[in-house]
Amino acid sequence: MAPPDGQIVPYSGLLDRYGSLLDLPQHTARVTLLEGNTPLIPLPGLVEELGGGFALYAKFEGLNPTGSFKDRGMTAAISEAVGRKAQAVICASTGNTAASAAAYAARAGLRAVVLIPAGKVAAGKLAGAVAYGAQVVQIDGSFDDALTLVVAISEKHSIALVNSLNPYRLEGQKTAAFEICDRLGRAPDWLCLPVGNAGNITAYWMGFQQYHELNDTGLPRILGVQAAGAAPLVLGHPVDHPETLATAIRIGKPARGEQALQAAEESGGRIIAQEDEAILGMQRRLAAEGVWVEPASAAGLAGLVAEIRAGKLSPQGKTIVAVCTGHGLKDPDAITRSMPVPTRLPADLIELEAHILGK
Fold first, then answer.
1. How many other C-beta atoms are found inside a 10 Å radius of the C-beta of residue 37?
2. For domain 14-67+169-336, which architecture applies?
3. What is the distance, to the nearest Å, from the Cα of residue 11 to the centroid of all Cα atoms in its chain?
4. Rounded to two decimals, what is the model's pTM?
């Protein structure tokens, strides 16, 4: 049945759907790009490869408006900033936060300033920030240096900080846990996800705890996965010069590190590290099931598979959700670098048939 007057009634965004469960100030406005409502995609091929007997889903956050999970937190952070009459927002970013902050600021009519570290920011992410009209500044330093600077600027001037240090970011991001429970009817047995600045793992645990208190949905065990070259939470100390092809998690001093460790411990889970080779291999494996994610997004599943194969995690009879944080188009370099040159043929049916059919 069509809506009244033939009007389309769209999905209304996270603040409308879950606003009553979010700890946001009264002055919070509503700035939305209809984020959230991302699918749980079954991964039957990978399940079969691992012996079967369990359910595995990818929570594909790459289908948010700017292609990453950051939109969940940004709708809340920008809405709060607009509500208190902020005129500008600022963030440090390895890419995804930059694009998301710029998009939501543009939607709200705010100026956005983005600091990125020198080098190794995926072109797809930087292009997004530029397209949405942000002022992009590259500094000669790391992400951690950039974060220190934007915190100082926000404390000195009336510019809203929208990194995950902003508590409203976590309020928005925890809605992903609500969606998983709503879709499954309960919490999964295990949740695995990448860990960079550690805001997302913190937010998921907040969300699962809150939903369990309200709806008795149960709690998952959490497996957080860092890249081996940027694994401060695994090593137990900051990494001054983090290195990984998974640029979204190339962070040596996570802002929410202590909370991430607490989330893993309280859930009965853990945080581990995986080499880039395993992460990129899982990126290709996911694409073989039709799900193309940026490299960092594959870290959670790479860690899960490693734990299963090492006998450290038994999946039998379990329901497992892997959070895939960003779309493959955000960071295509890992694919394009090794992409073969397409076969070139004349526009001739016989030659095409011979090539395709192996005649």
1. 16
2. 3-Layer(aba) Sandwich (3.40)
3. 21
4. 0.91
